[in-house]
Every structure is written in structure tokens, then in C-alpha cells.
Amino acid sequence: MTAITPEELRGLFLFESLDDDQLEWLARHGRVESFPAGTHAVAEGQPAESFIVLLDGELAMSRQVRGDEVEISRTSQRGVYAGATQAWISDAGAVSVYPSSIRAVTDCRFLVLPAAEFGPALREWFPMAVHLLEGLYHGMRTTDALISQRERLVALGSLSAGLMHELNNPAAATARATSALRERLAHMRHKLAMLADGSIDRTQLRNLVELQEVVIARLKNAVELTPMQAADREDELADWLAEHAVRDGWDLAPVLTAAGMDVDCLDEIADKVDPSLLEQSIRWLGYTLETEMLMSEVEDASARISALVGAAKQYSQMDRAAHQWTDVHEGLKSTLAVMRHKLGDGITIVKELDPDLPRVPAYPAELNQVWTNIIDNAAQAMEGRGTLTVRTSHTDTSVLVDIGDSGPGMSEEVRRRIFEPFFTTKPVGQGTGLGLDISYRIVVNRHGGDITVTSHPGDTHFVVRLPMTGTTESGT
């Protein structure tokens, strides 16, 4: 470590316009340090304590991207600078680490200036320029925050629209089933009045009630038929009904088929009721079966609505603490549920979930945002057709979530930049390039974990590692 003279400083383009007093100040406060080839002058992530200027040699600047060291630039130009380049910001505490690493490619000499002293000196020497630069810097940070917020709102709006679409289907099914159920009950009341007008033998009425229970039990145990099998069964039943003078048998046959009835079952009914009551009895039983099926449809639709509301509540973590011991499976399942509309029928979901997966200390609502961004990108990559694989596992120290898709994959250049802010491969207006950047920050900065991606044609995987120890940030 040696001193430097004002004359040598004036020979650098960075300082050539400074006056003698300013050069003297730099010479007094600065020091010259040498770094052998292959060593680092500054390391990414360490406290930004020094502003450095290249005096001799060649340097390379690099950043860590998903565990890979990516070289940003390489130069041997005297006077290039790095390190605490934002020391002039008045709230410099907000920028407290080196954003990149500087490695000496050859033996290098650097002028090293303490950031704590150099920053105030710049503000004193160039007050107007510093004010302008601070305004630009804070403006960019504000813009970044607003765009990030907008990205979240757009994603929320998309999910809300999808959720409403998903809720509309069972709600409409419930409305249709209720309307049909009202009509069938009216027919049942009419038939009941006819059957109970006193002209039917008590034994016949008892047999009909017993048959009613038999066909309902048969409905519950009905085996699902293939379309071809169902069509053949309907033809058989329609022929039987026509042979037994039951009018509009073609209309009754589909209901009886769906209830699991066959010709043998109709023969059993014919044996137990008077021939004069056969048509009314079969229609009564048909209305009974339709009513049961409609009630099952209402029940299924209501359960679907309940499940969607539950998934939405779990997804948003409503009424829950922000930071808690979290079951990752709950978040993954709720995210898949609320994103079902985006995945569509052409995408097959394969879930390989570790049954012994431990809970992790996390912000579950933020993790759900990570799953949403990754799954959304996978769905878009597959363009509505392919396989989405969600796999979980764990080690002694971490929980691993692997989300894979069978899309076309990405190039090595795209893979290296996939987590960069504002980087997107989507057409203009369809993506801001912040979804995966936000995911990276949530996993790495908020949870102390890691997120990596591997990609080959037909096989792309995002792997999220979450530590099982409480290393999450306390702030936002």
C-alpha cells in the first residue's frame, strides 16, 4: 500500500477537471493497493466500503446469477472505477454492499478511496450534480417499485378473473340443476297424487316404494360406462320400454342408463308392479333417479365452490400471520387450484409430493406468488398443451420444490438472464420481466434460500430451495 501524487491523479480521465485542492484531498485520503492476477479487489455482496479506480492492469467485472459467475465486462482502461459507486447518495446506508465483483485479470494497481469520506466530498464539490443524480436514482427506484406493484396487481387481476371464471362454472351448474330439480319435483308431486288417489292396491304401493330404494342404491353404485357402452345400453332400454308400451322411452332411457339400470332391472320392476301401472311406475322411478342425480350435481357444484373459496383463502393467507411455520404443499395445491383456468384441459398436472415434507419458516403468501410466477411461465411456454410436474423433497437442512414443464425450453443466454429485472422473452405488452425477478428476491432475499433453473427442449425445471431454519428477513 503506497501513496499517490496529485500529478498522477490528474493523468486519469476521471479526475482531469478537478482543481488542485480537490486533487490534494484525493491524494491525502486515497491509497494505492496492488492485487495479483486472479485475486478479487472487491467481492459481490460484501460491505461497500471503498471506491476503487484502476491505475494499471486489466480487470474483469462479474455478477453471480443463480450460482453462476457471469462476466459483465473486461477492461484495461486507466481510470475506470467500481466499488462504492453510489457513495454520494445521502442515504447511502440503503446501498451498503458491492453490486458486483472485481477480479484482477493481470497484476493490477488500484486507487482506493474510503466511501465514508469520498461520498461527502463529492456532495460538497458538486452539489447540483449530486442533487440531479440523487433525483435520477430515487426516481428509478420509485419507478421500479411502482412497476413491481403494478406487476403484482396485474397478476392479482388475472388470478381474480380466472377464479371468477372457475366459480362461474359450478355456480351456473347449481342454477341449472336447481331449475331442473324444481321441474322434476313438480312432476313427482303430480305422479304421487295419481299413485295415491286410493285406486292403487296398498301392496303395489309398498312394492313401488321398495323399488324406489333399490334403484337409488343402484344409482349410488353405478359403474361409469364408455360412450359406446352407454349408447348400446340406451338402445336396449328404449327397445324394452317400447315393447312394454311405455311412451317416449327414448327420453327415459338416458336417465335409466346413467342410473346404472339395465334390462334385468326393468324386468324386476315389471314383475313387482301391476301391468296397468308399469308406465306410471317407471316414470315415477325415473323422476326419483333424476332428482337424486340433480341433487348430487348441486352437491358436487357446491363442494367445488367451497373448495375454490378455500383455495383462494389459503392462497391469499387471509386471517393468517405473515410469517409462520408453513406447509409448502398447501400453498402449491391452492396455487394450482386458483390457476386451473390458465392451465386448461390440455396440460396434465403430475404431483409427486413428499409425504414426510417438514414445515419451513416462511411468508406463505409470498411463496404462493413464487409458485404463481413459475407455473404461469410454464403454462405460457407449453402454450396450453404438455405436462406440468410439481415435485417436493427434502434434505436434512432444506425443503426442495421442483416445478418442471415439457415446453420447448430456453437457450443458455435466456437461462442466464431469466432472473434479471425487466428481462422478458414475451411480446411487447405481455410481460414486464419482473415476475421471476420478484420470485428470486422472495426466495433468496426474504427466505435465505436459492432458486435455480435447468432447461433442455421438452424439459425445463425451476428448483426452489427453502431452509428449514428461521433465516427470513424481518422487514419487507
Automatic annotation (TrEMBL):
Residues in Histidine kinase domain copies: 290-470
InterPro entries associated with the record: cNMP-bd_dom (IPR000595), cNMP-bd_dom_sf (IPR018490), HATPase_C_sf (IPR036890), HATPase_dom (IPR003594), His_kinase_dom (IPR005467), RmlC-like_jellyroll (IPR014710), Sig_transdc_His_kin-like_C (IPR004358)
Signal peptide location: none
Domain spans labelled Cyclic nucleotide-binding: 14-118
Enzyme category, top tier: transferase
Catalytic activity, EC: 2.7.13.3
Protein name in UniProt: histidine kinase
Organism classification: Bacteria, Bacillati, Actinomycetota, Actinomycetes, Micromonosporales
